[in-house]
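Forum > Structural Biology > Help requests

Title: Can anyone predict the 3D structure of NADH dehydrogenase subunit 4?

Hi all, first post here. I have the sequence for NADH dehydrogenase subunit 4 but no way to get a structure on my laptop. I'd be grateful if someone could post the structure tokens.
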Amino acid sequence: MNFCLYVLTPLLSFIGGFSAYILMLKIVWEQSLSGGDIGATLYWGGIAFFLLAVPIYLGIIYFIDNRFKRLKGLLYPIGCMLVFFIPTLLITLTFGSINLFLPEAMLFHSFFLTSGLIFGLCNWGFKKIKATSAI
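Reply #1:
Sure, ran it for you. Structure tokens for NADH dehydrogenase subunit 4 below:
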């Protein structure tokens, strides 16, 4: 079960976030990622996700587990989604901007909002499965 919580959940949420990024790019800007753009997006998104977002998500889930007994299925995803701007800020600062309303930042907002949603839901689901299998 720990494999599902600490390996599978981050991977699924990263894939979901990257998919949201690509979908938003296609729908809003009618563009697609090509060649080096895919690598750069995966690289910068991966660094921000695995080094910053995942520890924050785990901290939020730990906080919710210690403070709340009910509504975790709602609180996990909302809590993880609310910090979407922090990893985006890391990415925009790396490129010399603090503006979180740039079109590129909006793409990363969709990335981290979606990954937060998936991370929270997966954590809730896997913990629910773990609790029912322990009974």
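The longest helix spans residues 35-67. The two ends are 15 Å apart (CA to CA).
Shout if anything looks off.
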